[in-house]
Automatic annotation (TrEMBL):
Cofactor(s) needed by this chain: Zn(2+)
Recorded family membership: Belongs to the beta-class carbonic anhydrase family.
Domain of life of the source: Eukaryota
Name of the featured protein: Carbonic anhydrase
InterPro entries: Carbonic_anhydrase (IPR001765), Carbonic_anhydrase_CS (IPR015892), Carbonic_anhydrase_sf (IPR036874)
UniProtKB keywords: Lyase, Metal-binding, Zinc
Binding site for Zn(2+): C132, D134, H188, C191
Species this chain originates from: Trematosphaeria pertusa
Record's catalysed reaction(s): hydrogencarbonate + H(+) = CO2 + H2O
UniProt keyword Lyase present: yes
Cofactor-binding details, from the entry: Binds 1 zinc ion per subunit.
Cellular component aspect of the GO annotation: cytoplasm
């Protein structure tokens, strides 16, 4: 299906001064031009000149040359549409993915004829990324890595829970079988999961998941209670949550045994900021943390050894 850009939605964009639209139709403030956006611009040269400009309709069409995109409609806007329009929007928002995918595959093949042959040969990533499911943090885009370079796990608020078979399997596989060199736990300021955990409210099914973050708050209650500014307290809890999840990674037998044997992986705690698109390294003292954790959680000896 050809790319269709509903004209009716364009005035919606034009109403908001000082914004530009990126190819997939989401809107950034023009003042937030950042290294991240610069990086995006470098990768997508057709809209490089658009970064600091308020869009005109012709510019939007230029942007649309590279990626097929429908202008996004909010759920509220969609609910006010007749059923036929809703159906049309759903079809278009589905089809754009396949249009984009086709174009991407063609581009990769044109740039690197061996690209898909290499991908088919297997993976050997250096990095394991444990991040938040938040849709605004495209791990590979913000780190400049390509397919095959990063093993990725995401969940709400980037938690590493001992009883979560999913994340534990990911860590185990990445460390023991893929032999990753770095494990990154990446949180982000403005995390909805952390915010929800700070809210004294019954969150239903989310309660047991958010309990993990509330436990981080309890562990660092003395420090957090000295911060009066709610935003700063929120930011600090985001950081402390990342540190605690790094500790949870370090507590695993896979990480401890691999590090004792080969000197890797190293565990890092990072936080992504929406305001500038930059990653902040919390500079976790990995060796210090490992030493301290192993006083109680030393799992370097394989239980099968000596038996
Ligand atoms: Zn989040």
């Amino acid at each position: 299906m050809p790319c269709v850009r509903p004209r009716a939605a364009l005035p919606h964009v034009a109403r908001a001064p000082g914004v530009f639209v990126r190819p997939r139709g989401t809107v950034f403030p023009s003042s937030s031009a950042s290294p991240f956006l610069g990086f995006l611009a470098a990768r997508h040269t057709p809209f490089q000149q658009q970064l600091n400009a308020t869009p005109r309709l012709d510019q939007l069409r230029i942007l649309g040359v590279r990626y097929c995109s429908t202008i996004r409609m909010s759920s509220q806007e969609l609910e006010s549409q007749p059923p036929s329009q809703v159906k049309k929007y759903l079809q278009q928002s589905h089809d754009r993915i396949f249009e984009n995918n086709k174009r991407w595959a063609e581009e990769q093949k044109a740039k690197h004829p061996e690209f898909f042959t290499n991908l088919s040969a297997g993976q050997s990533p250096d990095y394991l990324w444990i991040g938040c499911s938040d849709s605004r943090i495209p791990a590979e885009a913000i780190t400049g890595l390509g397919p095959g370079e990063m093993f990725i796990h995401r969940n709400i608020a980037n938690l590493v829970c001992n009883t979560d078979l999913n994340v534990m399997s990911v860590v185990n596989y990445a460390v023991r079988h893929l032999h990753v060199k770095h494990v990154i736990v990446c949180g982000h300021y403005g995390c909805g999961g952390v915010k929800a955990a700070m809210t004294p409210k019954d969150m239903g099914l989310l309660n047991p998941w958010l309990r993990n973050i509330r436990d981080v708050y309890r562990l660092h209650e003395a420090e957090l209670d000295t911060i009066e500014d709610e935003e700063k307290k929120y930011d600090r809890l985001v950081e402390l949550n990342v540190v605690e999840q790094c500790r949870n990674v370090i507590k695993t037998a896979a990480v401890q045994q691999s590090y004792a044997r080969g000197g890797f992986p190293v565990v890092h705690g990072w936080v992504f900021g929406f305001k500038d698109g930059l990653l902040k390294d919390l500079e976790i003292d990995f060796e210090g943390q490992l030493k301290s954790i192993q006083k109680i959680y030393n799992l370097t000896a394989d239980a099968s050894e000596g038996s």
